[in-house]
Amino acid sequence: MIQGVRTCLLLTTLAAICGSCHSPVVTGHTQIPPSERPVAKDATREELLDAYNAIARNMKTMDATVELKPTAGSKYSGVIDEYHEVKAFLLAERPSEIRVIGQAPVIGKTVFDMASDGETFRVSIPTKNKFLVGSVANERNSSKPIENLRPQHLLDALLWPPIRKEEAVTMTEFNNEKGRYYVLTVLRGGYQLEVLREVWFDRANLQVARIQTFGPRGILLSDASFSDWAPVNNPATGQANAPASPAITSFPRFIHIERPHDDYTLDMQVAKMVVNGEIPPDGFKLEQPTGSELVHVGESAEIKPAAESKPQ
User: How far is CA 302 from CA 69, 125, 128, 281, 290, in A?
Assistant: First the structure.
């Protein structure tokens, strides 16, 4: 009799276990208050294009004070070097002019002065008494990653290229534990279509959160992340909360730039910013300091000192 009862209980237990295979068992239950639930706003492809181009087409100039913190190398190269933060004064003007003057903290001594016009970059390094000149199109990288930092890399992250009507653009969604995003993919035409750029929008606020730029064969040239959006300064009134133009009301204050093939990353914290203000013509002019060594980056040219004085 007892043995029969035990057998019945065993069969009942097995049946319960097998039955659970067909219906999930809840092991926990958390009720999230409405106020803490993340928001995922909806937008169309056209609305996202308009939001992006409102900044890309109307941001003409930028005058900013920033803090730069570069990190050279990666786990892939086997060495990671971190550098001190540098206070920098930055001027940028569309389509391709940029000037960045970096100073050491506290003492205010210039550690670098670099400029680019879209074709040629120039970098003055007073501490080494060198003046570097090279082509923006030069793909030959230095064995020291920090020397691959170029002024146009900052320009690309600050003055975004507009998305033209004739460019093919697709729209997709991307979701993970950090949030939900819309992704606009801009395609490069030709014999074989390639991805030119991917623009990520955070669906929590529909602001640009990330811009990835690709080269031929899908090479990831730049991966820039944007956060801490804030109102921009109006050059006409000087008021920090007034829009600089009807189309531009805010811009990110923190930008993280990754250049995987240049083997460095750069954090840029914007302290002050004025957009669409007047920049003097000589603001982007960078001459070789007298007595400094001229280095042609990417070329085998010899190092030449600048003349102490011009010949009569």
Answer: 31, 18, 16, 31, 17
Q: pLDDT of the chain along its 312 residues, tens only? A: 555 555 555 555 545 544 555 556 778 777 777 666 678 899 999 999 999 999 999 999 999 999 999 887 655 555 555 667 889 999 999 999 999 998 887 667 888 899 999 999 999 988 889 998 988 887 656 666 566 778 889 999 999 999 999 999 999 999 998 899 999 999 987 678 899 999 999 999 999 999 999 998 899 999 999 999 999 875 654 555 554 455 678 999 999 999 988 888 999 999 999 999 999 879 999 999 999 999 888 764 444 445 444 443
Reply yes or no on domain 60-305 having CATH 2.50.20.10. yes
Domain spans of the chain?
A: 60-305
How far apart are the C-alpha atoms of 194 and 188, rounded to whole Å?
5
